[in-house]
Amino acid sequence: MTGIRFLLALAVAITAQQAFGQLPQTRITSVFPPGGQQGTAVDLTVGGGTDLDELDQMVFAHPGITAVPKLDANGNPVANTFTVTVAADVPVGLYDVRVRGLFGISNPRMFRVDSLAEIAEVEPNNLLAQATPVALETIVNARANGATDVDFYRIPVKAGQTLVVRSEAEKIDSSMQPMLQLYNVAGRRLAESRRIRAQEASLVYTSTADEDLIVRVQDAVYGGGDPFVYRLSFDSRPLIDWVSPAFVVANFQSPVTVYGRHLPGGQPTDSTLEGQPVYQQQMTISAANEQAPVGASVTAAFVDSFWWNAVPGNLVRIGLADGTPISEATETPDQPTTLPFEATGAFAELSDEDVFRFDAKKGEIWVAEVFAQRRGSIADPLLMVERVITNADGTFTYNRLATEDDDKQNPGGADLPTLSDDPLFQLTVPEDGTYRIRLRDRYADTRGDPRLNYRLSVRPPKADFSLVVFDAFPSADGKAPATSGAVSLRKGGSYELTVYAYRRDGHNDAIQLSAENLPAGITCRPSVIGPGQTSAKLVLTASSDAAEQIAPINVIGESGAADTAIKHAAQVASLIHDSINGLPRTARLTQSLMAGVMKDEQPFSIVVDAMSAEFSQDQQLLV
Length: 623
Known about the structure:
By secondary structure, the protein is mostly beta strands. The protein has a six-stranded mixed sheet, with no helix packed on it. Strands 40, 42, 44, 46, 47 and 50 form a six-stranded mixed sheet that branches. Strands 2, 4, 7, 8 and 9 form a five-stranded mixed sheet that branches. The chain is flat, with a radius of gyration of 27 Å. The protein starts with a helix and ends in a 22-residue tail after the last strand. Mean pLDDT is 91; it is low at 1-21.
């Protein structure tokens, strides 16, 4: 009889998962235009998606951005279009936008707020003679409409005037990889730039005469379609290419040096970037009460960082650390340091290698962790730990203890891409003596770039964890990876969320999970990520009489005894796209976890329970 009970429960659970995956849910792939100017209104259209029936609400993560359905001349709603108003005091930055319809609240897409006037590209502009005219200090919202789409823009400049052309695609959830080319009217190519992962394409050009310039834009691998939106800014604002150090101390005024190809008032350096001279300028960053870096890769959930927007036209990812960093000493092959320490550096030259030397005692345990990709850097660090042995003749022998490349943790597995290129090694000191850490870029033999920057932290181990909840929709068969989704409940229905744990420095305890700030009509049973495990499920359930609503909720994890418990709120990740257009499966952080109850009702309910039955020999049970 026990076997019968088990089989019944299992079959019902599988049926529930498959039925859940097949029910319709509102999902969007893009909005257009993907941004707006402070203090203005713009008509925003849902570019594509599934189950977009009866869309009646558009919701933004900032209360200063509001939307109402757009009406035609007869007072009827225009399909999938809303009039959006951006208040003048909304800070420039990135904000989640969602829509709601018959099948609930959608997954988020990105809406960018900036300070310049904005226009949309005018089609056709596929030929030079059809180039969209653009004035300086203007942002163009555009899309690569097809696989071979090319967009041309024409802008007049004065002699001595510096033009900065910057694209945004990765930041706004786009599948596009823009390639920018700058020409004069005679057809001579003056400059070129393309997107490299999170590094957006940008151009800087100072004109020697009054002239018209032409900007040509295409996808680098000839992709196109609804999600291939981009923003192109034509302006004279500063352009920051990198910041050093790339992290600051929280709640402290931290001096930094910003570097860029266009920094009015900046001092020249010996560096060049894409053929242009680089300038530097001293600034101060105050990191207080900064929120999670919305729009950053999901790996950013495992490192503290934020968007710095103090310089107009620039959104720069800045990391947070516990201590003030030391900078790499380019003139010293082996830089002496004292444990513990924070260091910052960059692989600026071809075959560049940075070395940090320190003394340690037998039995001590130190964690050496590199932060690069998780903070938005394009570096791919290689970490080597060596013992330094002094020979009788005064020469040195280096005994390699470890070589680490990528992070060994990937709690999201195939569903949520949480694996990063950032290495980590825990050193148990074998003998009193001198040791060193060597860092180099994995592709050091073929590239060197000051934007290949990193943070190195060498510290005692401290057991801890971070959580990220995957706001996703399961596949129809439960076997394929989850897709874009949102917590959109039918009345009387349930929604399953996966919470992933990234464990640090030997943390192995159970993590108790719970949902907080649940609105009336929605409940969630606590769950647990078991010792040594990396994930668990949370199931939210709406009562049959729950009101239609949308509300932000929090997922909390707590681990350890009450007096020493570690407690963290989970960050939230949303899938942007599967592997497409030369880009890998990509997910990003969102501002909040939104839970909604939709108009549609649960078509049936399944209760998992044991069933008792008595049978005589040779009888069969039909399920």
